[in-house]
Amino acid sequence: MLPAREEIIACLKGSKYTALKMKELARKLGITQPDYRHFRARVREMVAEGIIVKGEGNRYTHPGRLSGDV
């Protein structure tokens, strides 16, 4: 089952967060192999909408992390 967008955002805003690659983010959220393709599509949609950011080294983060806001 895919996590809701809010769960992905919460993971990226968490206090113990560091920018994660797609597979690292999937592992942290407990995404199974059969769901990985759909998860990847959801993350890419969120990047296209500006909800999350793909940064250096293909790592994903919340835009607030870039400006220092939390």
List the helices and strands and how they pair.
Elements: H1 5-13, E1 20-21, H2 22-28, H3 33-48, E2 53-54, E3 59-61, H4 63-67
Helix and strand composition category: mainly alpha
Poorly predicted spans: none
Tell me the fraction of residues in β-strands, as a range.
5-15%
Number of strands: 3
Spatial strand sequence of the major β-sheet: 1-3-2
What is the terminal separation in angstroms? 28 Å
Helix content: 40-55%
Major sheet: size, sense and barrel closure? 3 strands, antiparallel
Q: Oligomeric form of this entry?
A: single chain
The gross shape turns out to be globular
What integer is the average pLDDT?
89
Q: What Rg do the Cα atoms give?
A: 11 Å
SSE string, helix = H, strand = E? Answer: HEHHEEH
